[in-house]
Design brief:
Layout (H helix, E strand, L loop, with lengths): L1 H10 L6 H5 L16 H7 L4 H23 L5 H4 L6 H13 L7 H22 L5 H21 L6 H23 L4 H17 L5 H21 L1
Helix pairs in contact: 1-6, 3-8, 4-8, 4-10, 6-7, 6-8, 7-8, 8-9, 8-10, 9-10, 9-11, 10-11
């Protein structure tokens, strides 16, 4: 609940600037200027088009549904799980890290560290939850991986052109995602969230240069490969 309320409070503030309100949802403005480290990860936390909005809303909904399901029928029950490791501690850390991200956008190094912690905990939790009918954990892990990759690009926001930044926001996440999906196993929510995130980032930034679309295609192709392997 805290994660969702904090996310809504950041993404839907009481006032917006007039330029943002007057812009179309899809396609986005033809030129996006990235000049501050927090601007790239903020595309996931404060979306500018309907693709990213749908991804963020899906994250909120799935986390709430997972919490409700665990309240009704906890899968971490000691009697049922026996010696299997519990999921909720790692899931809690991942959600708390995601909750803190909007307040760290002006501190890129701390933002990257917290995003890395959240992504790592979410990935491990997704691996433990594979086969337990909890798709929200893998989906959150995929989104967290995309946000972490975006924070890496944000560290170089004042040194590289937007084409390189967009590629940097996609390709490390794809590399991490391919390894993580193979380790997680049969839970496909992780790859679906990453592919969705890459599509949203490409739609948001490709107006600046077609090369961004190429980076997105490479990332999506890599994740699609491991997605098919996991699904089969």
């Amino acid at each position: 609940m805290i994660f969702v309320i904090a996310g809504i409070g950041h993404a839907i503030p009481v006032t917006h600037d007039s330029a943002r309100l007057s812009g179309p949802l899809l396609p986005p403005p033809p030129q996006i200027t990235i000049s501050a480290p927090g601007q790239i990860p903020e595309l996931y936390l404060d979306p500018v088009n309907i693709v990213m909005w749908a991804l963020l809303a899906s994250i909120w909904a799935m986390v709430l549904l997972d919490a409700a399901g665990q309240f009704i029928d906890p899968s971490d029950d000691i009697v049922e799980r026996g010696d299997l490791p519990r999921i909720w501690p790692l899931m809690s850390i991942a959600v708390l890290a995601a909750t803190a991200l909007p307040w760290l956008l002006r501190n890129p190094f701390l933002l990257t560290a917290v995003a890395a912690l959240g992504a790592l905990c979410a990935i491990i939790a997704a691996g433990r939850a594979a086969g337990h009918h909890r798709p929200a954990i893998g989906f959150l892990a995929g989104w967290s991986t995309a946000v972490f990759s975006a924070t890496l690009a944000g560290l170089a926001a004042d040194k590289l052109p937007i084409q390189a930044l967009s590629a940097l926001a996609i390709l490390p996440g794809a590399a991490i995602g391919m390894v993580a999906q193979i380790w997680i196993g049969s839970s496909v929510g992780y790859s679906l969230a990453l592919i969705w995130a890459f599509c949203g980032l490409a739609v948001t930034t490709m107006g600046s240069d077609p090369m961004i679309a190429l980076a997105a295609i490479l990332g999506i192709s890599g994740m699609a490969t491991v997605l098919v392997r996991a699904a089969s």
